[in-house]
């Protein structure tokens, strides 16, 4: 699966330069022109990298800050695009991993993207979801035991399908058999 990036900027030169650099790195790019549009997209999709024009987009710096408090994209690699209003230290304090000064040159952007790719791939491996087809049961706080299907497992959790909605934040005990295994696994966790 290709890497995904979102660029928040209205500057056509930034669009051209970033698209050229990301195309060369095999990273798909989505564009948005307003902070509200970026917020809407970021609530619904996960990105590997987000590039935010902090100085020329109204509330651009706020989008960068909110990125780190959201659910889906808080650990993505963030680039701050600045033109003098925001300094490098401020950009890092907002949550940027990398800072690019405008006007952005292809060479500087390429170096930044190359450096970011290693971090992106490390983050991707950390949360790689292994597709599985397994069945089991879940014992929830109320004492009920419900049958479930497991669809994928990652370092950070397990995705299950269950016959009813489970209460977020509740404790759970899972019992399941992975394909090719002869023993049931019993694990405790929290429903999120």
Percent of residues in beta strands? 25-35%
Identify the strand order in the major beta sheet: 2-1-3-4-5
From the spread of the alpha carbons, the general shape counts as elongated
Looking at how many chains there are and whether they match, the oligomeric state comes to single chain
Distance between the termini: 26 Å
Could you say what the CATH architecture of the largest domain is? Answer: 3-Layer(aba) Sandwich
List keywords for this structure.
single chain; 192 residues; alpha/beta; Rossmann fold; 2 domains; five-stranded parallel sheet; five-stranded antiparallel sheet; elongated
Can you describe what's shown?
This protein is of the alpha/beta class and 192 residues long. The chain has two domains: 3-126, Rossmann fold (3-Layer(aba) Sandwich), CATH 3.40.50.2300; 130-190, no CATH class. Helix content is 31%, strand content 35%. It has helices at 12-24, 35-44, 60-67, 88-94, 106-126, and strands at residues 3-8, 27-32, 49-53, 77-82, 98-101, 130-140, 145-154, 157-162, 171-177, 185-190. A five-stranded parallel β-sheet has the order 2-1-3-4-5, with helices on both faces. It has a five-stranded antiparallel β-sheet with strand order 8-7-6-9-10, with no helix packed on it. α1 links the parallel β1 (3-8) and β2. α1 (12-24) packs across α5 (106-126). It is elongated, with a radius of gyration of 21 Å. It starts with a strand and ends with a strand.
How is the topology of this model organized?
Blueprint: E1 3-8, H1 12-24, E2 27-32, H2 35-44, E3 49-53, H3 60-67, E4 77-82, H4 88-94, E5 98-101, H5 106-126, E6 130-140, E7 145-154, E8 157-162, E9 171-177, E10 185-190
Parallel strand pairs: 1-2, 1-3, 3-4, 4-5
Antiparallel strand pairs: 6-7, 6-9, 7-8, 9-10
Helix pairs in contact: 1-5, 2-3
């Amino acid at each position: 699966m290709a890497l995904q990036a979102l660029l928040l900027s209205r500057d056509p030169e930034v669009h051209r330069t970033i698209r050229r650099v990301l195309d060369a790195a095999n990273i798909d790019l989505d564009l948005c022109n307003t902070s509200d549009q970026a917020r809407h997209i970021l609530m619904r999709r996960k990105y590997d990298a987000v590039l935010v024009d902090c100085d020329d987009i109204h509330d651009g710096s706020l989008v960068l800050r909110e990125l780190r408090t959201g659910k889906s994209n808080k650990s993505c690699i963030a680039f701050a695009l600045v033109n003098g209003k925001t300094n490098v230290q401020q950009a890092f304090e907002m949550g940027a991993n990398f800072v690019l000064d405008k006007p952005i040159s292809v060479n500087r952007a390429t170096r930044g993207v190359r450096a970011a790719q290693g971090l992106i791939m490390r983050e991707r491996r950390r949360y790689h979801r292994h597709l599985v087809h397994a069945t089991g049961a879940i014992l929830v706080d109320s004492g009920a035991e419900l049958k479930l299907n497991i669809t994928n497992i990652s370092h950070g959790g397990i995705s299950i399908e269950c016959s009813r909605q489970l209460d977020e934040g509740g404790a759970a005990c899972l019992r399941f058999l992975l394909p090719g295994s002869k023993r049931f696994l019993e694990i405790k966790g929290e429903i999120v």
